[in-house]
Amino acid sequence: MPEGTLFPEEPSFAPGTPLAERMRPKSLDEVVGQDEVVAVLKGFLARGELPSLVLWGPPGCGKTTIARLLSAHLNAQFVSFSAVLSGVKEAKTVMDEAKRLRQATGRKTVLFVDEVHRFNKAQQDAFLPFLETGDIVLVGATTENPSFELNRALLSRVKVYVLKPLSPEVMEGLLRKALTDRQRGLGSMELSVDARALARIVSLAAGDARVAYTLLELAAELAGPKGVVNPELVERVAQRRLALYDKEGEEHYNLISALHKSIRNSDPDAALYWLARMLEGGADPRFIARRLLRVASEDVGLADPRALEQAAAAALAVEHVGLPECDLALAQAAVYLALAPKSNALYAGYGKAREVVQQKEPYPVPLHLRNPVTPLMARLGYGQGYVYAHDTEEKVAAMECLPEELAGERFYQPSGEGFEQRIRERLADIARRKAKHGGTKNSGS
């Protein structure tokens, strides 16, 4: 077998072998869509070495294929291991065997761990001794951000390479190759495939070659030899596209971040798109409702006091109606928030107040603001100097309500957006009223 070749020149597959498996690249030169990463890995192989590494990328982008081809180039024992199906005990057995193989023959073992992030950070420590001695070359694959999912000790001993989703052009090229390849693909069926059908498969697969091959194979089976694959047939086998969405992984946070930031940027169309991506992908509507409540206060605030009402109403609809009926309530709230005037004055004001509370000592409540609920408290000065605002002509008392050490501090400073323009005017009016009765250190607009 030529160096770097995973399959023999005349491949023989067991009946029923999926098209995706049959079409796996036979060498690194056949890997498409990951040129930068492949070039770097070829550089290592040219020097006869390969560091332990983690391939991070979406499903179907080539992680497993690249791992197997690296092993073939090194003439190493290849052991594939799934963190989903097995645990650390099985991994240690494999690594102990790898140690014995290396001591007996000098031959290394490439241990491919799919979904390596499924091991918790304590379990990942089991790999460390074998990495230190060089008994194994660890090639991990993950769809999750290694920065969050791998512990520091393991992360410091591996190189991380990011694989991209396959582009539509690359995906179409793979499908056309499968349609003409008579050895491994569907060439012997002599299918007639509508260009629109190919485009639809590419769209449905969303960068996942495995999904694309599966859809094409199912459509070919329905069409039969010399049959026609058209968009209608593709829709029949696809039935309904599952949105690209992982309710527990990084994509979950990427999508909710996109929704939040689209609303903040007053883009209702983008807000509806990201909302639909989440709901169609199976997101918990209560999670979205909670984020909309946050957006209402953080990014709209008192520039439009009704924003929080809209978000709260949507949250109530989610609890009482549920999916699918609550989708429009969430859409209404998202669009309302996107179109509302924006102000982060509340967010900034509370943040400043919280910072003062965290960094400075807990100043005592001024005596005049304390209730003299017992005679002793009254003798100690509780309540002395307090002015009941309703008893004043201006309905505002000229007294400081912050601790003496913070007198004059301003936390909330409204913008000129929406209703906050009226709030600025109201604060200026309050300052004038206080000044009329002797002033206060905490006046002004």
From TrEMBL:
The task this protein performs is described as:
DNA-dependent ATPase that plays important roles in cellular responses to stalled DNA replication processes.
Q: What is this protein called?
A: Replication-associated recombination protein A
Similarity comment: Belongs to the AAA ATPase family. RarA/MGS1/WRNIP1 subfamily.
Q: Give one GO term, molecular function aspect.
A: DNA binding
- Check the record and name the InterPro entries matching this protein: AAA+_ATPase (IPR003593), AAA_assoc_2 (IPR032423), AAA_ATPase_RarA/MGS1/WRNIP1 (IPR051314), ATPase_AAA_core (IPR003959), DNA_pol3_clamp-load_cplx_C (IPR008921), MgsA_C (IPR021886), P-loop_NTPase (IPR027417)
Instruction: Output the GO biological process annotations, alphabetical, semicolon-separated.
Output: DNA synthesis involved in DNA repair; DNA-templated DNA replication
Q: Name one Pfam family in it.
A: AAA_assoc_2
- Keyword Cell membrane present in the record's keywords: the answer is no
Which keywords does this Swiss-Prot/TrEMBL entry list? ATP-binding, DNA replication, Nucleotide-binding
Region annotation (Disordered) maps to 1-20
**Transmembrane region(s):** none
Boundaries of each AAA+ ATPase domain copy? 49-166
